[in-house]
Design a protein that fits this description.
mainly beta; 7-stranded mixed beta sheet; 4-stranded antiparallel beta sheet
């Protein structure tokens, strides 16, 4: 089993910054993809940013230029630096990790979610 522990959510003013982290633990052999999703009340879950094992990063158009995804491979930790925050960024943010445990056993784990609230 792979467990994800998220931290860094909170309340910030519009234009401010916040940094999220997600630490994966368990018998991990490799990680293929790490990503951040978010879900606002009444809306579908949205992919915010992702990074694959080779280092390629992708961002939703709504956060390009404001958010930066990064990882620490040695610590199996994912980060999301959020700058120039807007009220529409308010949502529960979820960490997602795809990889393998042992030899050839795939896993798909989700964090419990952390609330990010951006006030005007």
């Amino acid at each position: 089993q792979v467990q994800l522990v998220e931290s860094g959510g909170g309340l910030v003013q519009a234009g401010g910054s916040l940094s999220l982290s997600c630490a994966a633990s368990g018998s991990i052999s490799s990680i293929n993809t790490m990503a951040w999703y978010r879900q606002a009340p009444g809306k579908q879950r949205e992919l915010v940013a992702s990074i694959i094992s080779g280092g390629r990063m992708n961002y939703a158009d709504s956060v390009k230029g404001r958010f930066t995804i990064s990882r620490d491979n040695a610590k199996y930790t994912l980060y999301l630096q959020m700058n120039s925050l807007k009220p529409e960024d308010t949502a529960v943010y979820y960490c997602n990790v795809l990889g393998h445990i042992g030899w050839g056993r795939a896993f798909n784990s989700w964090g419990q979610g952390t609330q990010v609230t951006v006030s005007s």
